[in-house]
Sequence to fold (128 residues):
Amino acid sequence: MDTIADFLTIIRNGYLARKDSVTTNVSKTRLEVARILKEEGFITGFETKTNKPSDKITLELRYLEDIPAITGIKRVSRPSVRIYKKATNIPRTLSGAGLTIVSTPQGLMSGRTARQKNLGGEVICQVW
Fold:
């Protein structure tokens, strides 16, 4: 089971259905991906709700004049095929207009930040 791919699919389906927000189960990785998406301006915000059976995270989706802020989201590294890149080889999504999320030894961060810190790692996903 690939929880990151499920999370990305929930976001993609929320935009396709023109939802204002989407809710899913929370994990540390999902929180970090949501934090990066908010910092880069792809979502308006996120909020965690603590319920005893399972905690939830709600993402506020962002639209620019009825056009989704995220037009495409793609999982790169999968559990069956891991993709690792050096800092100099981290792919630029849409020539820098998009976002690449990388898992480095210092945690999840955008590809731009990883290149600045000269950190390589596993390429998690690309967003544009």
